[in-house]
Each structure stands twice: as structure tokens, then as C-alpha cells.
Design a protein that fits this description.
By secondary structure, this protein is α/β, with parallel strands linked by helices. A seven-stranded mixed sheet has the order 1-2-5-4-3-6-7, sandwiched between helices. A two-stranded antiparallel ribbon has the order 8-9. Strand 8 and strand 9 form a beta hairpin. The protein binds zinc ion. The site of zinc ion has 10 residues, from helix 13. This is PiRNA biogenesis protein EXD1-like. It holds the Pfam family DNA_pol_A_exo1.
Length: 395
């Protein structure tokens, strides 16, 4: 059910072969989504305004993960490993600024927080672009946050939330992540946003989601079979995982090596992210993950080099941030966790940045215009959005 790595390395609840079998063949859209045997009971809930509660309970359902109810995981187990480490993922092409060697710093002492944040603010002044990623045991409001990785092109800071707790956010990381003047590169920000808001009252702002950017890039790729075609309404686009995107666009063997060595060490649901000291391979994995956002962005950014395309990405990214975070409960069923681009997340054009939220889809529980559903569906009270219909077909 829960994925260890919602960035796509474990491809959600589905197998690689099923999910990413084809992003270039029409018939690919007819296959791939495996029905979940554990469809959760449909809970009548709509999107509601989020509250900065530490954690929301699921009414009448056991927690997916046993949480320490005493509060955020801020207890110190042991002093962590030496804080300063160097990892050198080589890139096949120079990064935008031409830096080939990158380093990361583990911030696991209170005395280090302010300096790390000051360095991040200073380093990002030039272009204001940061990369942000979270590592957790079961990333989301029902999980436990281990690390927040924040990177500039030059350097990555791994903030140890397990060890330092909410203090990291209170001392300035919250302000940085919420700063509307700094763009943040993320990859599939849905679970990160859910986790940061519900556990630490951090509302991510001004995010450019690379998973959505890849979709836009694909649309503009003249060599792609879908280019220029008007797709039927029942065509639903698949999203790619981060690992797949790196392989396809960046093709960096060293990135792949470090990610592949770290992946099996996470444990079930990422339980090993909460152990201290964190092993070197996992620290490197976390650093490589977030550092990989920059070369990927470099490859994809041509797709959003017009104001209208950029606006479309910004609107889509904001909806992505809100998607899980704004739910009153998380269900983790097939309608929530699947490999399709959620319905109406990415506006078709910059002119469609608003839609009426009139009727609730009985699958994903999101609200859409009445015109998105058939009259028969509405009469029977079984209306589903096109993505949820696709999932029901077992495609
Ligand atoms: Zn739906």
C-alpha cells in the first residue's frame, strides 16, 4: 500500500512493469493499473481547508503507522555520524552553473541550524532556486519524517528532523520553505506537502514540480508520438517516477549507482530512515535525490520558458501541493495512489486555471464541475472523474 519512496523508485503500489510500460504507445494507456485488493471503504469526505494540527486521526480506522503520540519525533537516540561528507555524482553534461562536484552536510546539532540556513539563503540569493525533498518512514501525515534535504546547485543540507525535531523549522527552515520569493524544485510534492503541513505546520509555497514539468515537456517534444494530437477524453496521462526521469533525461550512471545502492537499505516502508546514526548509503541517497533535481530541471526547463507555460506549471504545482494535504483523511486506496496524472491537476491552458468544484468524485473524493460527469452517473450517485473511471477499468 504505502510506498517507501513516493518519488517513484518503487512506483507507488504498482510494479514497474505495469506502470511505466509505455509512455509512447497508444496501447500503453490501455494497460498497467493493477486493481488493488485492499480497496479501502469509501469515506464520505471532501477536500476541506487544512488545519495546522500535528496529525489528523482517521475516524474509526486504525492508524496506518504507529506514531509516537507524545509529539514530533524529536528525541535523540545517539550522536549521528560525522556531519560533513562529500559525494561526487558526476554528470554527463555540466550542470547549469558548471559545477561537477557537489557536497552535502548533515545538520544534526542545534548549533548548526542557523549557519546552515544562513548559507542556504546566501547561496540561493543569485537565482533564488532551491531543491527540496523529504525522506521519511511512510512519507505523509501518518508517517515519520527523517530528513529534509534542501539544496542549491552548489551544496545540499540534510536537516535531521528525527534528531532535532520541530526546532529546525522554528529556527528558520519553515520560513525558507514558505518564502514566496524563492522557487523550490520538487519531484512529486504531494506526500512531502502532506507530511510537512500536518506534522510541522509548514506550508510549502512557490514549488515547481518536476514530475509535472516532465508532462509538459513531453507535450512539447516533437519526436513524441503524442505531439500535436488531440487526445480523447478517456486518455489519461501517466506520470513517471524520479528514477525513470533521471534515466531518461539525465542518464547519470553515478546517480543511478548511489540510488540503487541506497534503495534496498531503506527497509519496509522506509523504516530505516528513522534509525540513528543513518548509514552513509542512505545519506548519499538523500543527497543524490535532491541534487538530481537540478540536472533534470536543466533538461526540462525549455518546456516552461514562456510565461503561459510557466504559469500552467505553477498552477499545477500548487494543486499538487494541495492534493493530499487538503484531504481531511488519507485513504491510500487505488484512487489516491496510482500512476495517472490526477484529473484537472494540470490545466489544459493558462486560461483554465479555475474550475468549479460542484460534485464529488466517488473515487478520489475530489470535487469537479458537474459537466465532468455523465447524467446517468449523477442520477445513480456513482459519478467518477475520468481518471477514476480509468482505474476502475483496470487499465
Ligand atoms: Zn476521481
Amino acid at each position: 500500500m504505502a510506498n517507501t519512496d513516493p518519488k517513484g523508485d518503487i512506483d507507488y503500489v504498482l510494479s514497474d512493469a505495469l506502470v511505466f510500460i509505455s509512455d509512447e504507445e497508444d496501447q500503453g494507456i490501455q494497460r498497467g493499473v493493477k486493481r488493488s485488493a485492499e480497496d479501502a471503504a469509501l469515506v464520505q469526505e471532501d477536500q476541506v481547508k487544512p488545519t495546522p494540527a500535528k496529525r489528523l486521526e482517521i475516524d474509526g480506522e486504525p492508524s496506518k503507522v504507529e506514531l509516537d503520540e507524545s509529539g514530533p519525533p524529536n528525541q535523540v537516540d545517539k550522536p549521528a555520524e560525522p556531519s560533513q561528507t562529500t559525494v561526487t555524482p558526476k554528470t554527463t553534461e555540466p550542470s547549469p552553473a558548471g559545477h561537477k562536484e557537489k557536497t552535502y552536510t548533515l545538520v544534526d546539532q542545534e548549533s548548526e541550524i542557523k549557519q546552515a540556513l544562513a548559507n542556504l539563503r546566501e547561496c540561493s540569493e543569485a537565482n533564488s532556486l532551491l531543491a527540496v525533498d523529504c525522506e521519511a518512514e511512510k512519507l505523509g501525515r501518518d508517517g515519520k519524517l527523517s530528513l529534509v534535504a534542501v539544496a542549491t546547485e552548489r551544496h545540499t543540507y540534510l536537516f535531521d528532523i528525527k534528531t532535532l525535531g520541530a526546532k529546525v523549522f522554528d529556527e528558520g527552515l519553515r520560513h525558507l520553505l514558505q518564502d514566496p520569493n524563492r522557487e523550490k524544485l520538487m519531484f512529486d510534492c504531494r506526500s512531502d506537502s502532506d507530511c510537512l503541513w500536518h506534522l510541522y505546520a509548514v506550508k510549502l509555497t512557490n514549488v515547481l514540480d518536476l514530475q509535472l514539468m516532465q508532462i509538459i515537456h513531453q507535450e512539447s517534444d516533437k519526436s513524441h508520438p503524442y505531439y500535436g494530437r488531440v487526445m480523447p477524453r478517456d486518455f489519461q496521462r501517466r506520470i513517471k517516477g524520479f528514477k525513470k526521469c533521471l534515466e531518461h533525461y539525465v542518464d547519470d550512471q553515478n546517480f543511478a549507482r548511489i540510488k540503487n545502492s541506497g534503495l534496498p537499505l531503506m527497509g519496509k516502508d522506509g523504516v530505516n530512515w528513522m534509525k540513528r546514526p543513518l548509514i552513509k548509503q542512505l545519506l548519499e541517497y538523500a543527497a543524490v535525490d535532491v541534487q538530481g533535481f537540478f540536472p533534470l530541471y536543466c533538461k526540462l526547463k525549455s518546456a516552461v520558458d514562456t510565461p503561459s507555460a510557466k504559469k500552467r506549471l505553477q498552477v499545477g504545482s500548487q494543486r499538487y501541493l494541495d492534493l493530499y494535504q487538503s484531504k481531511s483523511v488519507r485513504i491510500y486506496d487505488k484512487y489516491e495512489l496510482n500512476a495517472f496524472l490526477p484529473w484537472r491537476v494540470l490545466p489544459d491552458s493558462v486560461n483554465e486555471t479555475f474550475y468549479r468544484q460542484e460534485v464529488t468524485c466517488t473515487g478520489c473524493k475530489r470535487r469537479f464541475p458537474r459537466s465532468d460527469f455523465t447524467k446517468t452517473q449523477l442520477r445513480l450517485g456513482s459519478q467518477k472523474c475520468p481518471v477514476c473511471k480509468k482505474i476502475d477499468k483496470g487499465c
